[in-house]
Amino acid sequence: MEEDSADPYLPYDGGGDTIPLQELRGGGSNYAMSNGGGGAGASISTHLLDLLEEPIPGVGTYDDFHTIDWVREKCKDRERHRKINSKKKESAWEFTKSLYDAWSGWLVVTLTGLASGALAGVIDIVADWLNDLKEGVCLSAMWFNHEQCCWDSNETTFAERDKCPQWKTWAELILGQAEGPGSYIMNYFMFTFWALSFAFLAVSLVKVFAPYACGSGIPEIKTILSGFIIRGYLGKWTLMIKTITLVLAVASGLSLGKEGPLVHVACCCGNIFSYLFPKYSKNEAKKREVLSAASAAGVSVAFGAPIGGVLFSLEEVSYYFPLKTLWRSFFAALVAAFVLRSINPFGNSRLVLFYVEYHTPWYLFELFPFILLGVFGGLWGAFFIRANIAWCRRRKSTRFGKYPVLEVITVAAITAIVAFPNPYTRQNTSELIKELFTDCGPLESSQLCQYRSQMNGSQAYPAGSDAAAAPGVYSAMWQLSLALVFKIIMTIFTFGLKVPSGLFIPSMAIGAIAGRIVGIAVEQLAYYHHDWFLFREWCEVGADCITPGLYAMVGAAACLGGVTRMTVSLVVIVFELTGGLEYIVPLMAAVMTSKWVGDAFGREGIYEAHIRLNGYPFLDAKEEFTHTTLAREVMRPRRNDPPLAVLTQDDMTLAELQNIISQTSCNGFPVIVSKESQRLVGFALRRDITIAIENARRKQEGIMLNSWVYFTQHAPTLPADSPRPLKLRSILDMSPFTVTDHTPMEIVVDIFRKLGLRQCLVTHNGRLLGIITKKDILRHMAQMANQDPESIMFN
Amino acid sequence: MEEDSADPYLPYDGGGDTIPLQELRGGGSNYAMSNGGGGAGASISTHLLDLLEEPIPGVGTYDDFHTIDWVREKCKDRERHRKINSKKKESAWEFTKSLYDAWSGWLVVTLTGLASGALAGVIDIVADWLNDLKEGVCLSAMWFNHEQCCWDSNETTFAERDKCPQWKTWAELILGQAEGPGSYIMNYFMFTFWALSFAFLAVSLVKVFAPYACGSGIPEIKTILSGFIIRGYLGKWTLMIKTITLVLAVASGLSLGKEGPLVHVACCCGNIFSYLFPKYSKNEAKKREVLSAASAAGVSVAFGAPIGGVLFSLEEVSYYFPLKTLWRSFFAALVAAFVLRSINPFGNSRLVLFYVEYHTPWYLFELFPFILLGVFGGLWGAFFIRANIAWCRRRKSTRFGKYPVLEVITVAAITAIVAFPNPYTRQNTSELIKELFTDCGPLESSQLCQYRSQMNGSQAYPAGSDAAAAPGVYSAMWQLSLALVFKIIMTIFTFGLKVPSGLFIPSMAIGAIAGRIVGIAVEQLAYYHHDWFLFREWCEVGADCITPGLYAMVGAAACLGGVTRMTVSLVVIVFELTGGLEYIVPLMAAVMTSKWVGDAFGREGIYEAHIRLNGYPFLDAKEEFTHTTLAREVMRPRRNDPPLAVLTQDDMTLAELQNIISQTSCNGFPVIVSKESQRLVGFALRRDITIAIENARRKQEGIMLNSWVYFTQHAPTLPADSPRPLKLRSILDMSPFTVTDHTPMEIVVDIFRKLGLRQCLVTHNGRLLGIITKKDILRHMAQMANQDPESIMFN
């Protein structure tokens, strides 16, 4: 037997007598009595951290850019819950507090939903107005956008509905003429001028006030939700600046969308409201439940798809998603959607601009073009991810990234100058998507719907017999192809600029353009070859058999799927746009193909790629660890490293402890029985030790450098002249996670993922061998994938 | 230092040299080489089970009624995957095999979806026909049900559409007269006769051929999915008998539905198809992924709600639900839904009988009656669960449960006799729900729609001005109230009978009746008091302001929610029935209220209650463990128990080992370094040891009772005359899960839930103290909840 004298625990005593009962009772916990049958008698229990001493302020908090310990946070929350529960019968006030606590979860998601919906509505309205400002102003009321301005107009024919006397283009206003090359140049100039102004304002605001407001925010939110601290990323400054600059960035005409940033905005709301409730503000794990719900609300308002939003939060963003969170996320998403609908920013009583209804069924043969669109989406996604990451890496590593304002202005200028001549790139991207999704009806005035039936003045379209394309369609196809190339190039350079920039809308636009082109091609094929065996049965003359708008929608879903690698949530979001179960199969075929094709070129979606680019410690729950390494190959210390820094439970002085802390940089230290036995007692975090020592120095008399430090229940027997010892048991985690050195890494990775650990100790036959941290795992995984392990920068 | 001579592992050697390299290479695994930077050099690794020896047949399988070890199963699957991957470049055949393996997941869910959809269609059609057989037969074609029989009829007025000359009631057929008391009695008799015959046939088939075919099956499926083995529960016999008897049970008119059993049927399909693919048939964890997808398909066809089905599988049934499964479940649900729609059993091109569309919006004030319905639903749910469990417990414990056939016949007779006079109980429950959900239109002929406007012959209903109820509505309300009481009582006694019986339809029917009654009451209130401040603004004379059908739907959701405690999935399922986002808020309000009210009386849903009643080892992921016990209070051995049965790694003889095995009943034994040090080496399962010993006796020469048994890498040094030793390292799990004795039980429960463990060892300062199994945890939880811990029967 080895030395065990300091060990107060006798095996098999059922564990009831080591902790003085009356002291524990004072702790206010809800002690569970095991009654009958169990054999252990009345057993009193304590908790992770020792309750005997009052908590040291600061212990249990985290540094910026550090990983949280989910297990510890959840234990803290249960402890808090028990305290409130045990107190609630003491007084009416305590009871009210417990009720407030119980309801705070619903309150905070309701507030988050309300705020996200309201902000989304405001953003939609202001962005619309600013966007129209690039073309002209409404003389009757400056704050009206083009559409609102012409609502009261008498010109009610559909072709002319956009032209009303109250709305003046800049050329009309400045030059006094609406037509002619002079006014065209004037409009061109004003368009570019406003675009540049908006872009400059946006990037300056971001740069000066809130650098975290740039980008889509989804990679960072994913990392935060997986248990990482980035202070200020979801703060009020970020919220304010992101909201303002998002409007400006969208209005500037850059190839970006507002959907991703809306998720960030919603998460900021969730984070800010969680400060009203101590349950959430003081617990990093609980706060992340609110953030999951907030991201569902964000997608819900971005796409008008509450169920899709919840699934997006579940599939794409969240890490820890208990069923309670599912229900609350759903609630938040619904509240947000209803607020947005009451604001009614699009004037169509719908949640989205591009709500569509199709009336024609699809045919089995059409699956072929749909799958082709899926292949296109997958290729585009893989290409985009590579190109964008290469460009962003270049921006990060070269001098070039030092001038973000110049970069934004350059991109905005190129975008505006190239975009203006082409009507499909000049207009708002969301409106372009709407136009592409919508089927041609008799009232449609756009070039895309110039079929012969319309040219003949017949209102019979879509009646098939004259579904032959007129020249307008061909010229539209040509312009759309140019727009496609333009969007593809610009999006690569736009995503990652120092302005809020979402990727959903540009990706969908690219897919919608490609889809519409394919759709029209198939339609014309079917028209001119309606007696082919493929078309013969269902595409008779006079019947309306192809819906080009559906192709646009399928293409949009495929491209979005290729970029983000979303699956169910994407299908459900698009399903909620159309509302018909009918079209789920084409969508699914395209999204599945696009995912498979994309995955063949690299399994990461754009968000994971950006997470890796930034070196965040994100342990992806989707990626499988397939290697056969064992824990001992990954743990530190490695073969040639110095031995692991450990503390002993009762034979160190304060000086020795401080020496170990100052000589190492690791975030925590295992505590062992003695150097000889190497048997593990617990784990103490560096931050907690430092705080506890400082606290003791301040509050306790007689703590000196030669004071003994002990982690045991009772002080060791000391020489008579030694100074007062320092007890650190309260900061000792007495239930550290351990695995044996033979444990396959796939199990270790699983444990880290599912339990949300920060570190895990490795033992062999009961002796401490080493430690594995989340960073070690990520570095090991990077190494296995032939990537640079040093790219994982944070703990 | 203690004795460590048998320990081949030297700390900090980086672990590369204990296993002979060339032997490992032969194992066929895909060895990962850690390249550069890592410091460990080229490291070769092995696996949980030693690869040096060929696998012993039977090791790694489970006994009936035992819990699986998810971690081990997942490791096995990754190992298999690596083997296939490493072989796939060897030959075209191996490559094909690897492709087959990669696609088998999609294949099996496709097959499952196809089969579930087809079976659901057949069940719908046959049940409909049998149900109409109780009333009469179609003379022109025996196999037509009432509706099909009258399709060709010339009687096209809506009031008379059900009366056609081809369709003969039994009275017409036997007595030759359609009216009068004699024919009424004849019809009454035949109705009861057929109901009893169907019920008798159903219960006899279940009793003789497949006892597992009874009940809804969802509690058992939940348990199986959480990692439990019940052989034959999802077999072909169960499938066949359940399909046949489900049709009979539904047709017999008992107060039961086919939705729960359809989930069971779909899971049987999933299980049977998984036998075509070794990837799934040989791995219990992978098989459960298929079953999750199958249950989604089951709900998808039961309600025509693919997204709701997936969420149901996620929220209610599944335990381990990775994102891959989500996507496949969605696919299976869609395939099943489309197959069912092509079969078109309801003749309305819809997936469900009760598809509805409402056209009137709801008003904020209406939330009050909706919440009232929620309260009713919650109360009904709580009452039903208590009453049904009490009755089932009585059936289990008394002699009364010995006569299942008699019981079914009695219940069927009472149901038939009481049901016949009341038109709302006589008809099929699904049709009743459909009628209650549907709003009154001008063509509606039922009593429920006898408003004054109709009586006046005006087609203007719903036009409000004559929305006053006529006597027909009042008599319908009276009959509905009676039906409500009848359904409530009968459902309590029906759920749990030895026939397939689902709970969704009866619960929904009860809620729909209550909802319709409340809806009509509010409607009449609004009609007669349309100048009240509540109704004044939106309920003007002439406007259609209340939709009683919506109330029925909200009530149905509330009652179903009260019984099952489903949340998101329930709202989504009902949302998919109506198709409008509009009505989600009322649904959500009612479902939330119903859940809260129900939870106030007991947190368990009906399925959890039945799981507990049957003593299955189910660790609910939803229930929080809130007590403060520590691991050492739950672990065995308890204070007065004999010490833990342990094996030592290298100083036991076969006789000693067999002695320990025969004297104890536990399922596994920790292996320690030596009795003195108590340091843990690994864990060996009883079943594996027994199989390995038998295998060695059969195959190895010279194994005798005094042979030494060792778990180490190399044989211990033995006296010269000792017989050949038996090496058992290959069955030793060298990475057992351990926790310290101070670990709070909430963390232990979390680990068990999230990782799916079977047992966990408890250590103190590196020494083995005891063991905690899933059963121990469940018993402890039962004890904490003041329930009988002995009710947990299985391991």
TrEMBL record, chains A, B:
<feature type="transmembrane region" description="Helical">
    <location>
        <begin position="405"/>
        <end position="424"/>
    </location>
</feature>
<dbReference type="GO" id="GO:0031902">
    <property type="term" value="C:late endosome membrane"/>
</dbReference>
<dbReference type="GO" id="GO:0008021">
    <property type="term" value="C:synaptic vesicle"/>
</dbReference>
<dbReference type="GO" id="GO:0062158">
    <property type="term" value="F:chloride:proton antiporter activity"/>
</dbReference>
<keyword id="KW-0050">Antiport</keyword>
<feature type="transmembrane region" description="Helical">
    <location>
        <begin position="476"/>
        <end position="497"/>
    </location>
</feature>
<dbReference type="InterPro" id="IPR001807">
    <property type="entry name" value="ClC"/>
</dbReference>
<keyword id="KW-0547">Nucleotide-binding</keyword>
<keyword id="KW-0967">Endosome</keyword>
<keyword id="KW-0406">Ion transport</keyword>
<feature type="transmembrane region" description="Helical">
    <location>
        <begin position="363"/>
        <end position="385"/>
    </location>
</feature>
<keyword id="KW-1003">Cell membrane</keyword>
<dbReference type="InterPro" id="IPR002245">
    <property type="entry name" value="ClC3"/>
</dbReference>
<comment type="similarity">
    <text>Belongs to the chloride channel (TC 2.A.49) family. ClC-3/CLCN3 subfamily.</text>
</comment>
<dbReference type="InterPro" id="IPR000644">
    <property type="entry name" value="CBS_dom"/>
</dbReference>
<feature type="domain" description="CBS">
    <location>
        <begin position="635"/>
        <end position="701"/>
    </location>
</feature>
<feature type="transmembrane region" description="Helical">
    <location>
        <begin position="509"/>
        <end position="530"/>
    </location>
</feature>
<dbReference type="GO" id="GO:0005524">
    <property type="term" value="F:ATP binding"/>
</dbReference>
<dbReference type="Pfam" id="PF00571">
    <property type="entry name" value="CBS"/>
</dbReference>
<feature type="domain" description="CBS">
    <location>
        <begin position="732"/>
        <end position="790"/>
    </location>
</feature>
<dbReference type="InterPro" id="IPR046342">
    <property type="entry name" value="CBS_dom_sf"/>
</dbReference>
<dbReference type="InterPro" id="IPR014743">
    <property type="entry name" value="Cl-channel_core"/>
</dbReference>
<keyword id="KW-0472">Membrane</keyword>
<keyword id="KW-0812">Transmembrane</keyword>
<keyword id="KW-1133">Transmembrane helix</keyword>
<dbReference type="GO" id="GO:0005247">
    <property type="term" value="F:voltage-gated chloride channel activity"/>
</dbReference>
<keyword id="KW-0868">Chloride</keyword>
<dbReference type="GO" id="GO:0031901">
    <property type="term" value="C:early endosome membrane"/>
</dbReference>
<protein>
    <recommendedName>
        <fullName>Chloride channel protein</fullName>
    </recommendedName>
</protein>
<feature type="transmembrane region" description="Helical">
    <location>
        <begin position="261"/>
        <end position="278"/>
    </location>
</feature>
<keyword id="KW-0067">ATP-binding</keyword>
<keyword id="KW-0813">Transport</keyword>
<comment type="function">
    <text>Strongly outwardly rectifying, electrogenic H(+)/Cl(-)exchanger which mediates the exchange of chloride ions against protons. The CLC channel family contains both chloride channels and proton-coupled anion transporters that exchange chloride or another anion for protons. The presence of conserved gating glutamate residues is typical for family members that function as antiporters.</text>
</comment>
<dbReference type="GO" id="GO:0005794">
    <property type="term" value="C:Golgi apparatus"/>
</dbReference>
<feature type="transmembrane region" description="Helical">
    <location>
        <begin position="233"/>
        <end position="254"/>
    </location>
</feature>
<keyword id="KW-0458">Lysosome</keyword>
<keyword id="KW-0325">Glycoprotein</keyword>
<keyword id="KW-0677">Repeat</keyword>
<dbReference type="Pfam" id="PF00654">
    <property type="entry name" value="Voltage_CLC"/>
</dbReference>
<feature type="transmembrane region" description="Helical">
    <location>
        <begin position="191"/>
        <end position="213"/>
    </location>
</feature>
<keyword id="KW-0129">CBS domain</keyword>
<dbReference type="GO" id="GO:0005765">
    <property type="term" value="C:lysosomal membrane"/>
</dbReference>
